[in-house]
Sequence to fold (108 residues):
Amino acid sequence: MRVLVDQCLPRHLAAELPGHDATTVRAQRWLGLRNGVLLRAAVDAGFGVFITNDSSIEFQQNVKRLGIGVIAIVGFRNRIEDLRPIIPRILQELMTIQPGQVVTISRR
Fold:
């Protein structure tokens, strides 16, 4: 699965997703793109999943129409040390997420 990690998350998160072709918005040189443009660029580039900490993305963007899966990480600090405990959950979601689906991983 090609996975794009948002610029608001630690870039090291991409390296912590074994078995997936994961990279970052920064590595793609897409810094500063607004969510709609970014998601369209990701789909055009063949990404299947976008990982972000933007909890409102599913309300701001028509993810279903765009056809990209989104994993929203909510309620965690944006440090790799704080995200490592949920990496197994992220990997699990990557196995089942469908195009146009939004999955939220939260502390709640």
Q: What stands out?
A: The beta strands are 2-5, 21-24, 49-52, 69-74, 102-106.
